[in-house]
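question for whoever is on the cluster today: can someone run the full assembly for these? two chains, 533 residues total. i dont have access anymore since they changed the login thing
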Amino acid sequence: MIVPGAAVIQDLEAALALIGDGTMLAVPADYAGVAMAATRALIRRGIKGLHLVTVPAGSLQADLLIGAGAVATIETSAVGFGELGPAPRFTAALREGRIAIKDATCPAIHAALRASEMGNPFAALRGIIGSDILARRPDWKVIDNPFPPHDPIVVLAALRPDVALFHAPMADRAGNVWVGRRRDLFTLAHAAATSIATVERVVDDDLLGDETLAAATIPAFYLGAVAVAPRGAWPMRCEEPEDTSHLRDYLALAATEAGFARYLDRHVRDRRAA
Amino acid sequence: MSATAAPPDGAIRPEEVLIETVRRLLAGARHVAVGANSPIPAAAAFLEQRLTGGPPLVSLQQSPRHNRFTDGGRELFDAAGQGRIDVFFFSGAEIDGEGNINLVAIGDYARPAVRFPGSYGSAFLYFTVPRIILFRTEHSRRTLVEKVAFVSAPGTSPPGVWRRGGPVALVTPLCHFAFDKAVRRFRLVSLHPGHGLEEVRDNTGFAFDLPERVTTTPLPEAATLALLRGAVARELATVYPKFAASVFGVAPVTTDRTA
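^ ran it for u. tokens below:
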């Protein structure tokens, strides 16, 4: 049981003790602060059996965890590297039937988290009817709108992850975490049973003591742990832009199982690089 | 055939014809949103914005400098749900003759022969955004099929199912189709210069209707083309450096791309 407000600044490995084999782990999209240093630490620890929820889509983080054998089930709207190409380990794992997938659509993941945020059992969402996604989701149903015109509408079971894991620019000593306009992180932190934030730095001021900062700050009572990890989103974007050339190198290596193993040796297992 | 890059000598490129065709479909839009991995729609929207000197507002999910949303990734979908987004774009690993798109897989779902990234927001935006423009840079029987293997988002819905929007057009390197939801079929609008009806038939896996007279797709005017190759290409390079480099020869700049 997580005690509200118990988030104190810890070292990364200690903070990650909240994530175990089989945890339902929710993570943000590339633009919102991906905890890559934490992801590498989880892989070094040999984490297994994760139910990974990408909010709503993923790229390197999901591909790395899948390639390292850490994922049993992925719940996602898409995993890919945009213009750079498809996600090689995600694609290979699905083709070989090594992981289960719950295909979603972006707003459904947001809405199912919002249901959880409100303590509701489900959320309703327009569209989706007639999609093969719906046919494969027993946790999504079509009901009749109880109000006129009584038309069919999709309802989605609330999504309550065990842990949300993300990276943000700063925290204060009390464990309040400033996320700026990365508002997805509020939804994530509210919806998950507990959250772990890695941050670039810890500041001495009270982030809730300033109205401008407070509006963009997740209060400590949502957080199970906070750890300092400078450049902890690398190679994804946080305060520095995404390292696109590193992503290209990754995609070239991860095209094969052997190349992916070399990437892990070089950038994950070797702590100096990670 | 696939869109190919950069003939020398300033001749018009296939991508430029596509961009101009998509741009003309944006007339009157107030707010155009562009999803992941859509350089041609992004270029069309930037070009229209510069030509009108005002609307449409262009939002790119993955680019901080082209993103006015302040309430997270959900805000685009909330805005679309309310009818605040007029135009969105989708491609499809497969697109079929009834306007269904497949962004998921081919073959057995549990162990697919081919797996694509996933549906993104399609299953929602295809219903909520009035004007969905489909684009595909490969016009072949592999991509334009009679029936998709997996429906990420359906082209039409039965009566009684709430639906504000859906596909209105499909733009490829060969031609421009309009979608008629009443008959659930595409109708050829125009052929791009240098391409013929037989070529389109040979490379299209679905049956489609013909207009009374098949016309040639208009090319961008000289001033429009200059704007596209100049200011628009440079703006595009901040989001799609690879595309901007290969089509317009614009050197990569500091990127703010994310997947």
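summary bc i know u wont read the tokens: Residues 236 and 242 of chain A are 5 Å apart (CA to CA). The domain at 9-102+160-269 of chain A is CATH 3.40.1080.10 (Glutaconate Coenzyme A-transferase).
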